[in-house]
């Protein structure tokens, strides 16, 4: 009874902790509530299952906790997506291990006797193992992809579909046989098969689809925890798993909507059919402009000095950062540049597109790291109407999210995608490494506009040089 | 003489108390019977444990849906870090196994590893969230 009440308190604390994230002012308190909930849950469980072997739990908390603590302090903010993928894989692994232990010692959980477990329990164990194993390898592959170390996908996306379908079918058969026989070997087979599915599912997916995949794996890690909760009949695990699962699912749907893609098409490798050029190399795809005629059009190239002059003459500037800024590690210099402009009395704001970066909210974290105050940073819906009244839009490391083709070219693969209407600004300064296309493989009509000035070069270098020129002006 | 009168009084008082006790006892029996009846009926009323688990699950999904839509997009990265940390409550499963006489050596070993992995996540997740959030500052 007391146990259940304390678990309920933990669950409420977890919900409040997520609720705290609804504004930056309450977010730190939310995080502390989450920590309190976790502490309460662990202490309650330890107190109610008191045994000398619990020293093992303390050892695990100290070892694992130490590693986690150090990692959380050392990791670079640009590597955040990789870190999240790695963390998701750990949840998956823990879910698999707990499910296996449940099958080996069901008495410990008062679930029945080994060899005569109810079918419902066996089904829950089987499902938990499957989701956990899939999350484990899927996240490892996502981690490698984000690190740029993933092995090349040995099969085409279309083959991947049939491989995944047959592996999925094989898993269901194994699951059914396991529920019928309660064989440990069949469960181990199921683990191996599900581990394989994780690999074949994520391997063919392009690098730039990773925001969706990282969110999706976040969701899976939640469902894995919920499945374990069903097996152990632990309401706290079920509630928490459902919260996390829902959170990840919402994040992936937000990402999909803003990439103009459906979750199904990403998972099934549908992207390949839409733009064949982008599947293998993902975000880095720099193919010659799709339309030969388009590349003939004149582009106005500007120097860093031109950019500094245009910026210094402006009254209001909106900066649009993209993943290229993160790759070039340019956030701090960009922040300094903005500070310079502010000192000249220029209004500087930042516009963040939901899919800028490699995970949801990544740009906001990077800008916060560069000491940009969060009330200078705006979401697409809050700032899009202001471009018309802005003198300069400064685009750095972004491309597709500013492409007007999303509004006016029904034949474009990004048609209908929400974009930042930068072309409405007085002048568009486009900092870019080359005139190549972005991830979607579409030419950006913005390059050829009257009011666009292209500044070619590395994002960090350009910002540094602009600062120098601004000081000289 | 005085003593025998006192003794008689005590005896009669005791008998009276005993009689009262009988009444209380029978009342308790009655209450216990009713309670027992209720307890026996309860499982039938709230159906099997799977259904109550499913109820909790579905309701928690709905709560999650509304709470998460309220999170500002600027904090979506911390959201992912914090949900990652709390999904490691899976460590409870490991604690139960380790804290039971009835778990075998193999399952204890498996869950020990699970506990280490989950701990990395708990400390890493909350730590990362804290680090990210402490960078978010208001305009001076």
Secondary-structure topology with pairs:
The complex is a heterodimer of chains A (473) and B (140).
Chain A: H1 2-20, H2 24-48, H3 54-74, H4 80-104, H5 119-147, H6 157-181, H7 184-202, H8 210-232, H9 235-259, H10 263-267, H11 271-274, H12 292-296, H13 304-313, E1 316-321, H14 323-327, H15 331-343, E2 347-352, H16 362-369, E3 377-379, H17 380-383, E4 392-396, H18 405-408, E5 427-432, E6 452-456, H19 459-472
Parallel strand pairs in A: 1-2, 1-4, 2-3, 4-5, 5-6
Helix pairs in contact in A: 1-2, 1-9, 4-5, 4-8, 5-6, 5-7, 5-8, 6-7, 8-9, 13-19, 15-19
Chain B: H1 2-46, H2 49-69, H3 76-86, H4 91-98, H5 105-135
Helix pairs in contact in B: 3-5, 4-5
Structural account:
The complex is a heterodimer of chains A (473) and B (140). By secondary structure, chain A is of the alpha/beta class. In chain A, strands 3-2-1-4-5-6 form a six-stranded parallel β-sheet. Chain B is an all-alpha fold and 140 residues long. Chains A and B meet through helix 1, helix 2, helix 3, helix 4 and helix 8 of A and helix 2, helix 3, helix 4 and helix 5 of B.
Element order of chain B: H for helix, E for strand:
HHHHH
**Count of strand segments of chain A:** 6
Shape assignment of chain A: elongated
Oligomerization state: heterodimer
End-to-end span of chain B in angstroms? 98 Å
Largest sheet of chain B: none
- Helix-strand category of chain B: mainly alpha
What class do helices, strands and sheet pairing of chain A give?
alpha/beta
* Through-space gap between termini of chain A: 73 Å
What features would you highlight for this structure?
heterodimer; A: 473 residues; alpha/beta; six-stranded parallel sheet; B: 140 residues; mainly alpha
Give a summary of the structure in a few sentences:
The complex is a heterodimer of chains A (473) and B (140). With 473 residues, chain A is of the alpha/beta class. Chain A has 19 helices and 6 strands.
